[in-house]
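Shift notes (night). Ran Inositol-1-monophosphatase while the centrifuge was going.
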Amino acid sequence: VIRKAIDEKKNVETKSSDIDLVTETDKKVEELLKAGFSSNFPDHCFIGEESGGGKLTDAPTWIIDPVDGTLNFVHRFPYNAVSIGLAVNKQSVLGVVYNPVLDRMFTGIRGKGAFLNGKRLQVSNVQELSQALVITGCSKYGDMDQLFTNIKTIVDKAHGIRMMGSAALNMCTVAAGEADAFFAYTIHCWDMAAGKIIVEEAGGTCIDSEGGDLDIMSRRVICSSSPALAKTLSRELKHIRCPRDE
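Came back to this:
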């Protein structure tokens, strides 16, 4: 659906701001996924971006972003993905992130490893921020002064910084060893539920930005190739408080 629609004219609507977009493709993909999961797993719960979110409980819950990187999709920038995570007892146990334009399928299952198109993934061995390629995002949400302070800090201290516009794919890029760390504020549970398990199964680390355990409803994350690098980022960043998803 996404591969076909990316080159077609799109009916674009705005939600909370002029960069918070939804297209007919977002809605169609979520409807297809929700119908499939409801049919096969009628007792499972569902949280989807276009369905208005929901409360995470201990019940098996599918957490879905039908098009992570909608702004990229609208501009035909091929860095967007379907993100599907499964949480049980509020813990991520399965993740699938698929970029249909570039045909890159990232998967991870708790205790079974992480893969890209069937090839096992392994994070890089980078430990030091000075040697790290770091990915982040830039949006109009939250405290912009703190956001730009963080970006300047990373530009000054890291090997390099990139902004690509899809949190799920950013996390998978770390899992693949193609970047060494990712941090973000104001994202949502559907942006990171799948990526979390993929990073961890590739040998990486996911934590809350202030250094504690990651709560996917907290709307902030650091993931990296190593605990040492994650802790360094946590110390260097000026933290942004975000309203929870629930």
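The helical segments are 2-5, 24-40, 70-74, 144-157, 167-175, 189-201, 227-236. The longest strand covers residues 91-99.
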